[in-house]
Amino acid sequence: MKSIAVLTSGGDAPGMNTAIRAVVRSGFHYGFEVYGVYNGFKGLVNDEIKKLTREHVSRIINRGGTILGSARFPEFIEEKYQLKAVKNLTKRNIHGLVIIGGDGSFRGALALHNHGIKCIGLPGTIDNDIPGTDYTIGFFTALNTAVESIDKLRDTSFSHQRCSVVEVMGRHCGDLALYAGISVGSEFIITPETGYDREKTLAAVQSSYQRNKRHAVVVVTEKMLDVHVLAKDIEQHTGYETRATVLGHVQRGGTPSAFDRVMATEMAEFAVELLSRDVGGKIMCLSGLDVIDRDIETALKMKKTVSKKRYGLLGKLVT
Ligand code: ATP
């Protein structure tokens, strides 16, 4: 019997467990033995590999995080570690590997693929920053968490007539801020795609104050600026008492949304089906309503598309 394995790598995201469960169950369906690699590429090199049973993946469909653990292991760029990983897999007759992670993890997948292991990547990150797929596993769950938190902040902002400046995750991608901003009806968003324009930001918040709005919300992608400094600036120039909140890692946890569970399950099943046909070197992508496969190399070269129409929504709704 041929064997396959599954690992999670990079930042964890809700829905990774759902995907692991689906890899194991589909693996059994296609007649594979399925192994779990613990702690990402680091565990792969250190031989932290165990056979998984149905019991290992029972009652995890709704659990956040990843039961396999994740790790950053920059050394995996070096061929000697990649060869060690290949050795650890092949001695167990593992010919296929499902890697759930971000674009960094896909570069690791490509390296292993070039050494003869059939690899399939599943996009798992809350940042939605992977080109080639409309959405990533975990994005909508993190978005729901951000929206729920901002709604709560707005309740208290309203009571005190305050402005809330909220930092969300996303790294180089503004999708979390954009979608959260639309969902909560924010005054303004600041993302890598919009850049930071101080005058426009202050003008948008001030216009809300002048219309006697009791609350205002500005959503900012992490690393764009210091939200505490921005809050002070807004307070000094708009009339609103202003507070800054950094949502932080709370956005990474929690029960995966139904959307993330369905997408994770569909992508995982497709990945295993490809491996059953001895196909590797692909990543699973959501394109419209369909899960499709793309060559890893092609996907890594693609540029993330930004919806100008969606960015335009906020400006039209504020005034
Ligand atoms: P996230 O978007 O959540 O940060 P990611 O997969 O992009 O996820 P990275 O830290 O960039 O996170 O990559 C995860 C791991 O993938 C790295 O720690 C490393 O082990 C491996 N990796 C990254 N880039 C390469 C590369 N060029 N070659 C081989 N392995 C790589």
What layout of secondary structure does this protein have?
Layout: E1 3-8, H1 16-29, E2 33-37, H2 40-45, E3 49-51, H3 79-90, E4 94-101, H4 103-114, E5 118-123, H5 139-160, E6 162-168, H6 175-184, E7 188-190, H7 198-210, E8 215-221, H8 227-238, E9 241-246, H9 258-276, E10 282-287, E11 290-295, H10 296-301, H11 308-318
Parallel strand pairs: 1-2, 1-4, 4-5, 5-10, 6-8, 6-9, 7-8
Antiparallel strand pairs: 2-3, 10-11
The chain binds adenosine-5'-triphosphate.
Bound molecules: adenosine-5'-triphosphate
The first-to-last residue Cα distance is: 64 Å
Label the overall shape: elongated
CATH fold-level name of the largest domain: Rossmann fold
Q: According to CATH, what is the class of the largest domain?
A: Alpha Beta
Helicity, as a percent range: 40-55%
Strand fraction band?
15-25%
* CA gyration radius, whole angstroms: 22 Å
Q: What's the overall average pLDDT, rounded? A: 95
Contiguous low-pLDDT stretches (5 residues minimum) are none
- Total domains, how many? 2
Number of helices: 11
Most strands sheet:
7 strands, mixed
Query: How are strands sequenced across the largest beta sheet?
Result: 3-2-1-4-5-10-11
Structural class: alpha/beta
What's the SSE pattern? EHEHEHEHEHEHEHEHEHEEHH
CATH architecture of the largest domain: 3-Layer(aba) Sandwich
Tally of DSSP β-strands:
11
